[in-house]
Amino acid sequence: MPSRGRESRTRPGTPLAAEVVHLSAEYLPFARTGGLAEAVTGLATYQAEAGISTTALVPLFRSVRDAGATLVPFSEPFTLAVGPREEPARLWRLEAPPGPRVLFLEHEGYFDREGLYGAGGVDYPDNGRRFGYLCRAALEALPRIARAPVLLHLHDWHTALAAVYLRTEFRGRQPYDSTGVVLTVHNAGFQGHFPFEALADLGLSDELYDWQRLEWHGRVNWLKGGLVFSDMATTVSPTHAHELRTPAGGFGLHDTFISLGDRLIGVLNGIDQHAWDPARDPNLTAAYSADALDGKARCKRALQRGAGFPLRARAPLFALSARLAGQKGIDLILDGQVLDTPDAQFVLLGEGEPRYAAALAARAAAAPERIAYESRFTDRFEHRLLAGADILLMPSLYEPCGLTQMRAQRYGALPVARRVGGLADTIDDEDTGFLFDEYTPAALEQAVRRALALYARPADWEAHVRRAMGHECGWQHRGPHYIDLYRRALARRRAAAEA
């Protein structure tokens, strides 16, 4: 194994006396289905820039090679036992400029597939085995990757089983006993439910199958197990941390979240304020800033022209940029009167459930002079969409954090959003956006009317746009909270070792 894999990369005087290893199923720009990839990449990049030795370990999906990644070997091939099977593994390193070190775990049978989690809208039936292997292999590789002390940061259910393995199968071994674990819940709506037989298949004891650890309504629940065995747990906004502790917002795990006590903390996600900066965004027709907004009007004309709309400067232009799923509140838009707002234009961007895509396409076909629908998501189009829009629609059923509302504010498009999760924490009602409470079309429409009343006063609207664009939402403002959490996790681990 190359010696560079064992060398400590922690710099003297860095803000954390430990090496950080992120284990994630997604990472930009190589593997992405939603906000998870952007959040992990943003946090890891911030930590590396802050002088912390930071590594991200992700599966070597087919999409990694499709993205043109240049990879070099990091380890020789090795094998590991996962339940009754001997499985192959190898680590590859991304050859890239300074920043977090990015490693990819190779297993062709599990990861060289069309999709990350499934294909054709259907999950792969062996996802339990695939991501159980990821967790087990990551721990086997940990001494190759980082030198103790190590903070292992897990992300969502795909990696939660690593905490279970660490505190059971790897217990009593170094450097594992001194390794602190933080698990971040990005979306508790996905928990990793599998049959009881999955325990033996992954080499875990039947004794873990009880109501306090992995059992959940007759199934094995990976996210629950990861929460129980982690030193600290986080979710991606303070409001969502509260929601998870309630029967209405805990996705059936509210008792587990409550039991964590002060081990569960909500920390807002951030966005990359360099990539999302209208003053220097190469994707835009014209640059602009809070101090010089003229370029935004040119961006609006370009969006109208591309959509085939009349070039009307004072027509309110609404945007939607969302994964087409029930969570995103698409039903409120389709079942109500928002799309019938007089004199308004709508550019709708999203891909996902076919029923939503078909309904949006039908509305656009019925009124092409004022409604446009684009199903193919690209980063470039999303940048141009938010730069040209006046108002963003984000009526989510639930939203642990949300990133689009922060991008929209940065680009001077005021969000109309439901007061849930990170939307409540990042939008000041009737200042940097508009919030509503009830999950009904009528509540959304009332918030839209408030937005349009302000839009009808151009000078006042511009003042609100400037304030929204000045909202600080970068990782330099969020990242330090994680360093504090890491210290707490490591302190808990030291106390447990001394007990």
How would you describe this protein?
The chain is of the alpha/beta class and 499 residues long. The chain has 2 domains: 3-270 and 476-498, 3-Layer(aba) Sandwich (Rossmann fold); 294-473, Glycogen Phosphorylase B (Rossmann fold), CATH 3.40.50.2000. The protein has 18 helices and 21 strands. It has helices spanning 35-49, 62-66, 108-111, 127-145, 157-167, 198-201, 222-229, 238-244, 254-259, 294-307, 330-335, 354-366, 379-388, 404-410, 421-426, 441-455, 458-469, 475-498; strands at 19-23, 54-59, 71-73, 78-82, 85-94, 101-106, 118-119, 122-123, 150-155, 180-185, 193-194, 215-216, 219-221, 232-235, 264-266, 317-321, 345-349, 371-374, 391-394, 414-418, 434-436. The strands form 4 sheets. Strands 1, 2, 3, 4, 5, 6, 9, 10, 14 and 15 form a 10-stranded mixed sheet that branches. It has a 6-stranded parallel sheet with strand order 18-17-16-19-20-21, sandwiched between helices. The chain has a 3-stranded antiparallel sheet with strand order 11-13-12. Residues 1-13 have low confidence and may be disordered.
